[in-house]
Structure formats: structure tokens, C-alpha cells
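Bumping my old thread because nobody answered last time. Still need a sequence for this structure:
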């Protein structure tokens, strides 16, 4: 049976895991874990970076499905990207770590 991945899980998988994403964003791994567990929303301030770092594995609209139009109104007229939630992601990261 295929596991259904949330957008933040897809992003973590795409970059090599929660710790890798945390390092790339400059936040603590426990913070990313709270997003994955659903204890906190992914902050809008990190969504564009997550979308870019994950090479689109998770979009801003997917990361903030309730209020994305508030933060990115320019995306309202663009067609939504369809992602298969049951897709298996490779274990290898899609994006390399970004040096600051």
C-alpha cells in the first residue's frame, strides 16, 4: 500500500529529510517536525523557499491551503499544480543543500 504524503512530507523527502530542510531554512529540526506532525502551520515566510528547495514537490498553495491567496494573490489566476499524493518519492534528495 502506498503512503499518502502531506506537502511538507514531500518537501522533506525531496531535500533529504526534516533535518536537511531545517538546515536549509535556518531553523531547528524540531520546528520542521512540528509542521510535519501538524502541530503548527508552515509559516508563510518559509513557503516560497520550501517550494524552491524541494523543486516544486510542495507548492506554496499546498503548504498554506486555507490562506495562500492572502500571501500570494498573484497566483490566484494561475492553474493549480496537480501532484499525486500517493506518489512514491526517491530516497535521494532532489535538491542539494544551499550555502548561505
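Sorry it took so long. Here it is:
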Amino acid at each position: 500500500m502506498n503512503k499518502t504524503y502531506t506537502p511538507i512530507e514531500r518537501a522533506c523527502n525531496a531535500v533529504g529529510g526534516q533535518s536537511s530542510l531545517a538546515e536549509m531554512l535556518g531553523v531547528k529540526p524540531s520546528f520542521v517536525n512540528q509542521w510535519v506532525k501538524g502541530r503548527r502551520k508552515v509559516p508563510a515566510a518559509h513557503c516560497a523557499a520550501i517550494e524552491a528547495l524541494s523543486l516544486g514537490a510542495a507548492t506554496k498553495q499546498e503548504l498554506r491551503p486555507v490562506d495562500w491567496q492572502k500571501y500570494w494573490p498573484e497566483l490566484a489566476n494561475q492553474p493549480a499544480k496537480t501532484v499525486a499524493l500517493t506518489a512514491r518519492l526517491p530516497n535521494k534528495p532532489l535538491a542539494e543543500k544551499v550555502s548561505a
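The chain has six helices and no strands. Let me know if any region looks off to you.
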